[in-house]
Amino acid sequence: MYWDPEVETLTPEKLRDLQLQRLQATVARASQSPFYRERLREAGLQPQDIRSLEDVRRLPYTTKDDLRARGPDFLTVPTERLVRLHASSGTTGQATVIYYTRADIEAWAELVARSMYMTGVRPGDVFQNMMGYGLFTGGLGFHYGGERLGCLTIPAGAGNSRRQVQLMQQFRTTVLHIIPSYALYLLNVFAEMGVDPRDLPLRIAFIGAEPHTEDMRRRIEAAYGLKAYNSYGLSEMNGPGVAFECPEQNGMHVWEDAFLLEVVDPNTLEPLPPGVVGELVFTNLTREGMPLIRYRTRDLASYEDTPCPCGRAMRRISRIQGRTDDMIIIKGVNIFPMQIEKVLMALPEVHTNYLVELSRRDYNDIMTVKVEVKESFFKEDLKYLTGLKKRLTEALKSELLVTPVVELVEPNTLPVSEGKALRIVDRRQET
Ligand code: COA
Ligand code: AMP
Ligand code: ZN
Fold it and tell me: Whose CA is nearest to atom 2 of ligand 1?
């Protein structure tokens, strides 16, 4: 039942002891990085000042902007000790990069294997990983976890929908890792191919990387004839394997031996009690190359500390309820409006306004970018405008990693936005 019985059956008190010991070690380790050396000096703190878990509140927060601005300054080891990097959100300049040592990769694989095992995955299972490989953490993160557990792991990657179905048929896939909206979209492809997913030996799916509802989960479970478990993670904390549902499906256990969880009011930064939604803040407890202290995730959720029938003392978080910033997730890819703005404003043909509309057709996310084109360019011929549209689409795809539908409109026809957020209209809940 437990992958790591020693850790998974710790009493709450023993778990706190372990956390304190690891927090102290993490702060000592982090203080060797240029970034935290500076931050701790500014806060007048020494690693030995951390004497209780509550002392974590004396430590400074870390934000995505810090990572963007100071990436390599977070490292506590020389380059020779690093074996991998992953990056998220933004391909040019703005990406946040996380570096891993060999020990970090192993610890991460161990956490993902533990998460998968908790739901009932066992050696002998055939695991089809349908997340993007490459810089996304969902692909390689789960891949290593699946192999670690002993699954026959199929690195299917994202896209190629008919091929995905064929792989499931040919190799008798039993376990899936899939983005929830894509799982529902793929049902159309199953129907076109005359295949009923319930006739396949599928029994477990891990769904995550984007917000989804209980209703969506139940629909996936019914249509595929399997149990679907919510999986939460973020690149800054390795990737997937931060918080995971157990068979009770009553919230996601945070692996608190590896991550110190705080839930804070995003405005006052005061700690919140169980059941109240706030911002999730994590501190790495076991990372070697790039430990992060009090990382503000911008994800909103609440936590529960009531006992779970599965016997694990690790606290559970609710579904992610939203974000405190303007990041949007399309097809499992994180996008900041700033990225869209940067691409558009670099083009001389683009006038001042643009509008991004998000919709969902057959569970497929569609991003429509309406762009005002300057009068002088609008007078050009149709061939020119078609070429411009193509260039814009390619420039956006290259920055965002998803393909938008670009619509060119005449100048001053879009609403003038008074704030950045107004440039994005999300209609995905209405469909
Ligand atoms: N996951 C997997 N495949 C997806 C998908 C998703 N969330 N959304 C769409 N697709 C499929 C499409 O159905 C299409 O399949 P087809 O080849 O059978 O036609 C294919 O991917 C390309 O879709 P399209 O909408 O034309 O592509 P795009 O250029 O807008 O996006 C993706 C390309 C889907 C590959 C890209 O969005 C992606 O890699 N998404 C997954 C991200 C991920 O793994 N996140 C995890 C983060 S940890
Ligand atoms: P990335 O850094 O690319 O791995 O993306 C991490 C972000 O994806 C998180 O901060 C969340 O906003 C979102 N995310 C990941 N898993 C989930 C999940 N299970 N439910 C909702 N959002 C999620
Ligand atoms: Zn449980």
Answer: 158
> pTM for this structure?
0.96
Q: Best of 320, 325, 326, 401 to mutate for ligand 2, by most ligand atoms within 8 A of CB?
A: 320
pLDDT, tens digit, for every residue of 86-144? 998 665 557 899 999 999 999 999 999 999 999 999 999 999 999 999 999 999 999 99
**CA 262 and chain centroid, separation:** 18
DSSP string, 67-92: HHHHGGGG--S-GGGEEEEEEES-SS
The protein residues having their C-beta less than 5 angstroms from ligand 3 (an ion) are: 246, 248, 308, 310
Per-residue model confidence as pLDDT tens digits over 336-386: 988 998 899 999 999 888 999 999 988 889 999 999 999 888 777 889 999
Same domain, 303 and 360: no
Number of domains in the chain: 2
343 C-alpha to ligand 1 centroid (Å): 21
Q: Which of 124, 190, 138 is nearest to 163 (CA)?
A: 190
375: how many CB neighbours lie within 10 A of its CB? Answer: 11
Residues 431, 413: Cα–Cα separation, whole Å: 26
Same domain, 58 and 136: yes
Domain boundary among 307, 325, 343: 325
177: domain range?
Answer: 1-325
Of 303, 325, 347, the residue that ends a domain is 325
